Amino acid sequence: MTTALITGSTAGLGAAFARRLAADGHNLVLVARDTKRLREQATELHDRHGIEAEVLTADLATDKGIETVADRLADRRSPVDLLINNAGFGNKGRYLDVSMADELKMLKVHCEAVLRLTSAAAGAMRERGRGGVVNVASVAAFVPRGTYGASKAWVVQFTQGAAKDLAGSGVRLMALCPGFVRTEFHERAGMGTDNIPGWMWLDADKVGRGGSRGSGARQDGVHPGPPVQGADGRHQGRPARDARRDHIQNGPQVRASVGRARAQPEDNGAVRPDPRGTEAAP
């Protein structure tokens, strides 16, 4: 039986991935800050699906938290076959309205943690000749969205580059780029969503199913999720031929109006930073 480690597992897309993978018979390592919620989630998934669910409390906004998860990923005695880097959060406010501390915390969670955890997992997987990594990005990677969009663009570029370098090793990497997904993300970050039409919203469980399917695809570096299109039908931010090749659609196409929406498209059930630090999952 294979084992998947999910950061940000207790809400949003992370919880959807956990439900999907448990239903498919995978053992899980659930990562978040809130130990109580983690234990409740682990118990529910074990009782419902008969899988083993390990709890790992970690704050990915800290070096200690990242190291804790990296050590678990590198454990050869209890290997992880699939890593899902899902943890993240959104800041309310425009550039210069957000504190530098919160901006740097976002880069820590969205970029540094993804780099270090992917490296820990991929190193062990390459030794075994098999494994997969799903890095949750966003359609915000393809539109100007300040530090948030820039961090998600980094996730996409990093994942594509790593996938290329690991081609033929048996390790597959994928960047997941969903749009507006119904999770706690916007409410917790204090973002209004009244201006976002209903057809643009995706269901977290459907995105989780699509991401799980994509992680087993024969292509590396694919981007499941609704493509961002301009009004003329061209994909924004990248050549249309690349978008057609890389995208696996999980829902309605997101057209140019996504760039005008005030809220950030997000997907991973993350939270705005609070004095306790950013959760590996809410």
From TrEMBL:
It comes from the Bacteria. Keywords: Oxidoreductase. GO terms for molecular function: oxidoreductase activity. The keyword Ribonucleoprotein does not apply. GO terms for cellular component: membrane. Belongs to the short-chain dehydrogenases/reductases (SDR) family. Signal peptide: none annotated. SUPFAM superfamilies: NAD(P)-binding Rossmann-fold domains. It comes from Streptomyces davaonensis (strain DSM 101723 / JCM 4913 / KCC S-0913 / 768). Residues 232-248, 273-282 have a biased composition (Basic and acidic residues). Residues 207-282 are annotated as: Disordered. The keyword Oxidoreductase applies. This is 2-hydroxycyclohexanecarboxyl-CoA dehydrogenase.
